[in-house]
Specification:
One of its GO terms (cellular component) is cytoplasm. Its main location: cytoplasm. Pathway: Cell wall biogenesis; peptidoglycan biosynthesis. InterPro entries: ATP-grasp, ATP_grasp_subdomain_1, D_ala_D_ala, Dala_Dala_lig_C, Dala_Dala_lig_N, PreATP-grasp_dom_sf. Keywords: ATP-binding, Cell shape, Cell wall biogenesis/degradation, Cytoplasm, Ligase, Magnesium, Manganese, Metal-binding, Nucleotide-binding, Peptidoglycan synthesis. There is one protein chain. The chain has 13 helices and 13 strands. It has about 325 residues and is of the alpha+beta class. Strands 8, 9, 10, 11, 12 and 13 form a six-stranded antiparallel beta sheet that branches. A four-stranded antiparallel beta sheet has the order 4-7-5-6. Strand 12 and strand 13 form a beta hairpin. It is globular, with a radius of gyration of 19 Å. The chain starts with a strand and ends with a helix.
Length: about 325
């Protein structure tokens, strides 16, 4: 019997357009290897569609909260529909950057020092006093980003204390809690981790070189603003460390099937994990497809294998 896969893309987050591009890429990749696949938005039509057309498995190509905060995965669990990727609990954990960083640190995985600051506390305690303490504690430069969110939205590098208030305001526009962490100058690296049945395996690291030095939303999705090297131009020992830390982060957070781990190789030679994405982008400029290509793999065949494992779990 043919396998029918439903790809969820779109949603109502700030990353809707990126998600639709990811969904179409996944659709084309699966159809190219003979998989019966269809695309659906995650709206009021979804549950009736799951009941009437019941897919054998779902691939979540939603970015932002709809695809990454665990809620949709919980609904799919309620419906008894298998899906590719981690379960709801692990998704919730990875989605909240401060919580994920705490687990990484407890697991002995290096990550830049940080503080999480809700907007209400920021206002109640006095913005100036709080910002002064942050700079005293963490130093400069700093990275300010939403505690929940992706695609570089609301993120900014702060090199001077005078820039910090504006960065916080920009961050709070996307989320009620800001994650402020030490900014580590160095080489930005992404390692995609996949598990096709033999345990979590790192794909070749991808090196990210944005023109303006910051991998923000425009640099991620605008052609010509970023150069990628796959595999990354790393010394063998550093490449091995990067791969090991990516798999360790994937495992520490309880992930499965696939993830993307973002790291930085500092100018000091140390490698640090910045965060983990449980619904990696699949667009023409996304990092997981670049890593798949660098590994000599076919994206459609890889996804079809992950679908098979999801169905077996179901």
């Amino acid at each position: 019997m043919d396998t029918h896969v439903l790809i969820l893309a779109g949603g109502l987050s700030y990353e809707r357009e990126v998600s639709l591009r990811s969904g179409r890429r996944v659709l084309d990749a699966l159809r190219a290897v003979g998989v019966d696949a269809a695309l659906s938005d995650a709206d009021v039509t979804l549950l009736p569609r799951l009941a009437s057309e019941r897919p054998d498995a779902v691939i979540i190509a939603l970015h932002g909260a709809p695809g990454e905060d665990g809620s949709l995965r919980g609904v799919l669990d309620l419906c008894g529909v298998p899906y590719v990727g981690c379960d709801a609990r692990a998704s919730r954990l990875a989605w909240d950057k401060p919580s994920a960083k705490a687990v990484l640190r407890e697991s002995g995985i290096p990550t830049p020092d940080w503080v999480a600051l809700p907007h209400d506390r920021f206002s109640e305690l006095g913005a100036v006093a709080v910002l002064d303490r942050i700079v005293d504690r963490l130093g400069l430069p700093l990275m300010v980003k939403p505690a929940q969110g992706g695609s570089g939205l609301g993120a900014a590098v702060v090199r001077d204390a005078a820039e910090l208030p504006a960065a916080m305001v920009g961050c709070f526009a996307y989320n009620q809690t800001a994650l402020v962490e030490q900014y580590v100058p160095g080489v930005d690296i992404a390692v995609s981790v996949v598990d096709t049945g033999e345990g979590p395996t790192p794909l070749p690291a991808v090196e990210i070189v944005p023109q303006n030095g910051v991998y923000d939303y425009a640099a991620r999705y605008t052609a010509g603003l970023t150069t990628w090297h796959a595999p990354a131009r790393l010394e063998p020992k550093v490449a091995a460390t990067v791969a090991d830390l990516a798999v360790a982060a994937h495992s520490a957070l309880g992930l499965r099937d696939l993830s993307r781990v973002d790291l930085v190789v500092g100018h000091d030679g140390e490698v640090r994990v910045l965060g983990v994405n449980v619904a990696p982008g699949m667009t023409e400029t996304s990092l997981l497809p670049l890593a798949v290509g660098a590994a000599g793999l076919d994206l459609g065949k890889l996804l079809a294998t992950l679908v098979s494992h999801a169905i077996e779990r179901g």
